Amino acid sequence: MNVPTDMEDTEAEQRQRVEEQVEILLGGQGWEVERYYVGLEQSKPAALRKTVTYIICAVILNDKEEVLMVQEAKPDCYKLWYLPAGRVEVGESLEEALRREVKEEAGFDCEPISLLLIQEQGPQWIRFVFLARVTGGAIKTPSAADQESLQASWWDRESILPLRGRDILRLIDCGLKYRRNPWHPVTLPLDLSCRHVIQRLVLVYTNTQQIWMLLVKAPVLHLPAAAAVKTHAVTWAANMVVQDAMPSAYYDHDVTTLGIFSLQHNGRQHGRTDGVCFNSLVALTPDYVQLNEDGEKMDATETGSAATCGESSVHLASSPERTSERETAGKDQEHVHLTHSQHVLMG
What we know:
Blueprint: H1 11-26, E1 54-60, E2 67-71, E3 81-82, E4 85-87, H2 94-106, E5 108-120, E6 126-137, E7 151-155, H3 167-180, E8 197-206, E9 211-216, E10 225-227, H4 236-245, E11 253-265, E12 276-286, E13 297-298, E14 303-304, E15 312-315, H5 320-327, E16 343-346
Parallel strand pairs: 1-6, 8-12
Antiparallel strand pairs: 1-4, 2-3, 2-7, 5-6, 5-15, 8-9, 8-10, 9-16, 11-12, 13-14
């Protein structure tokens, strides 16, 4: 007797498989990206230096809660101070890039503790912010100045220091808070390949009785996923899924990425595994602001343009406690009925 394939499994077996996959994501893990996802025809394969740029940034603290800073050598920010940061190179994993940048700019060997934050301006610019610890090496002194940096130093965050950008203050604060009281489990990139920048969704909708989850029915029952497009934030992929699933009700709802359970990246084969898969928790909630057919906000006298995409930040959402808080936030909401035959809400 032949072993049934996914296509031959009963709907009950497919639902069971989806439930197991959700448990995998809730545990901060993942699996290889399937080929069926929304937006593939609008998205180009990720290729470093061509279609995507990944930045790593390190928040490293000592026992005094001083933060490791490096003095820039680049002409446009010469002698200003910043966190160790730089571009991921071809063939590198995110963790390999982290270790290399810290070694080159600060002189220390390091290891990542956890991802803290992911910031993005679409697939062409994504910054991965790590909390890390020193494991060896020696701090870079002015005598070792080179094109990577002039020197490194520990900053107490109180003394005056000319900064390259104040954006790092939020990152430092995030690292301090996580070190004192972690709000999500340790989360590091999973070594799983992906060709595109993808958002895989656990997309939930709540009413007073149940939590509903959006699934795609074809070719087999599976969690929705969408490829990022260069004209929008990576998290816009969730909107593409909802618009495809429920076109008649899409403009009556907000689609909000609450956080990331995990992310998948390999990067060893240039142009083939440079993509990233963000395993995301997404909430669908009614939007009581009236929108026109183009998705633009309307009021009694005028039509306002929809918000344009700027830099967005995505937090980690691996904590079951954090998930449950968001899942119970939808009291008194009406149930939404999908009108697209290729999707289903599973309660």
